[in-house]
Write a structure and sequence with these properties.
mainly alpha
């Protein structure tokens, strides 16, 4: 689309009433929604391999984080 065409469309839109502009916006949103291809989720299997040491213990790390949070919680919120 050329700048001239876009400018002409903008001028036409400016001539529409508020309600007509809303209807046009709804139409454009529906039209765009139909053209969007959903992105396939990335396969995470093995994506983090070799990012951590072989002896990394995720459960121990998470347990330590939870214990730290518990110490920071006010006494009325502790489980």
């Amino acid at each position: 689309m050329t700048d001239t065409t876009l400018t002409h469309i903008e001028q036409l839109v400016d001539q529409l009433s508020r309600e007509e502009q809303l209807r046009l916006l709804e139409y454009m949103a529906q039209r765009l929604h139909l053209t969007i291809q959903p992105k396939q989720p990335q396969n995470l299997c093995g994506i983090w391999r070799d990012r951590f040491p072989a002896d990394f213990n995720l459960d121990a790390v998470l347990s330590g984080i939870r214990e730290e949070w518990k110490r920071e919680w006010p006494s009325e919120m502790k489980p």
